[in-house]
Amino acid sequence: MSDSPAAAATPSLDRRNKWTFAVGTTGRDMVYTLVSLYLVFFLSDVLKPPREEFLWASSLILLARLFDAVADIVMGAVVDNTRTRWGHYKPWIAAGVVASSICTILLFTDLGLSGVAFVLSFALVYLLWSLSWTANDIPYWSLMPALTLDQKERERFGSLAKIFATIGLFAVVVAVIPVTKALAPSVGETGAWMWFAVAVVVIMLASQSVTLVGVKEPRIVVEQERTNLRELGKVVFGNDQLLWTAIAMVLFMTGYLTTTTFGTYYFKYVYGDESMYSPFGAVLVASQLLGYAVFPALSKRYSRRTLYTFATVLILAGYVVFFVSPTQIGFIAAAGLLLFIGDSFITLLMLVFLTDTIEYGQWKLGRRNGAVTFALQPFINKVGAALSTQIVAVAIVIAGVNPDRPADTTADGLLTIKLGMLVLPPILIVASYLIYRAKYRIDEALYARIVAELRERGDLRPAP
To answer: In the predicted model, what is the mean pLDDT of residues 234-255?
Structure first.
């Protein structure tokens, strides 16, 4: 099938690109969910190192994530500068998925080390995982704005991709506890987590292969020199809309990931029944799937600003219900429904906000740096995950939890978990919303004007 713009404009190729791009998120999000939500739990409650080693390991994870978050932006420039017969993106997507697969399995393997050797080896493997994930993540999401310039079409691409991503999330949050518990009698607790990681990695390799083979990339000609390191700062800091979007997203993701990372601890220590985490996970995923499914229809009737406000109200209502309700699954499920429908809206809105800053940056700075711009997405996710992981690690140490005797946790310890999970996150989410309202200005009218002016200037045209 042709890679020409004419072919790219046909409905059949649009459908093919939309579906094969979206399928690729399934396994990726299974792996990302496993690492971002359960690595700290695996460390604290499965490997069970001494408290000092646990705090050192979690702190080094924080440093590794922050280092890699900065490296993401450099990786974006590398992808933008890549010229191969397979395009900017696919070579990096393929190499990154293979390397991150190996590192994922190592993260969930007991290497039999202790003391300084354990801490340093764990941190090194995590850093290698994070760097290899970057090599896949940045070109993968940078591919989406290369497939269409239409805002509504980008929303449809993003919405479908997020649906498949949520299916991957669903598979892990629902299966991880019961599957590892079922495997533990035969292969041991740590072995159960390792084999679960192997299964997730196999699915990621398969789903990414669908994207690599199936997506046909229409090319947009932008005549510009390669981006060097000095110009990299201008691309990021000169694009005010990109910068404000990144700040708002970091605050939101820190709040959201703090809540979700606390989930296993909440059900083990506060709720008192770890097995109930899976039904709650099902509610989480069903809520997000519902949100992603209805978003395209709602976006046709309401502005993005209205949808963002509505989503924020839903999230705050969910936190209030969660905090004041008794520890009964019905109340918790209702709170989760509000929380995660709202989260799905904001996650998708943030994705399309970030996408639209590519044309804004080209319009303002005279350079189109799609991969550098999308490098901010993993940067945001990693900074948010790093901060949330450290918040959770410090909170559970302060709470004084004992993984072998969860019922011994004091009332103050349980309150510490609830405050960290349900009070700090909404504060961060409200701050994110206020920044968006005050600083983000790429609405539908401005975006249409930007694209029209770029075309008039000859800065945006299809490949011959």
So the answer is: 87
Would you call 407 exposed, middle or buried from its count of C-beta atoms within 10 A (0-12, 13-18, 19+)? exposed
For residues 288 and 344, the answer to whether their CB atoms sit within 8 Å is yes
- Which of left, alpha, beta for 240 (phi over 0: left; psi -120 to 50: alpha)? alpha
The token pair at 363 is 């319009």
The answer, yes or no, to whether residue 462 has pLDDT greater than 60, is no
Q: Are 119 and 57 in contact (CB under 8 A)?
A: yes
Can you list the positions of beta strands (E) in 127-272? 220-221
Domains of the chain: 13-217+226-453 (1.20.1250.20)
CB atoms within 10 A of CB 310: 15
Both tokens assigned to 305: 């600003």
Distance CA(207)–CA(215), nearest Å, equals: 12
CA atoms of 289 and 165, how far apart (whole Å): 9
Q: From 401, 406, 431, select the one nearest 416 (Cα to Cα).
A: 401
- For residue 121, pLDDT over 70 is answered with yes
Q: How many CB atoms lie within 10 A of CB 313?
A: 13
Distance CA 34, CA 122 (A): 16
pLDDT tens digits for 306-362? Answer: 999 999 999 999 999 988 887 778 888 899 899 999 999 998 898 888 888 888 888
Q: Which residues contact 56 (CB under 8 A, 6 or more apart)?
A: 119
pLDDT digits (tens, 9 = 90+) for 181-203: 999 999 999 999 999 999 999 99
Q: Mean pLDDT: which of 109-118, 341-350, 398-407, 431-440 is highest?
A: 431-440
As a 3-state breakdown, the chain gives helix, strand, coil percent values, each rounded to 5, of 85, 0, 15
Tokens 């460390």 belong to residue: 43
Residue 223 has pLDDT above 50, yes or no: no
Terminal C-alpha separation, the chain: 16
In contact, 185 and 45? CB cutoff 8 Å: no
Statement: residue 167 has pLDDT above 70: yes
Contact 26, 208 (CB under 8 A): no
Neighbours of 330 (CB within 10 A): 9
pLDDT above 70 covers a percentage of the chain that reads: 88
Q: What is the identity of the amino acid at 184?
A: A
Q: Would the pLDDT of 219 be above 60?
A: no
The token duo for 445 is: 């009218």
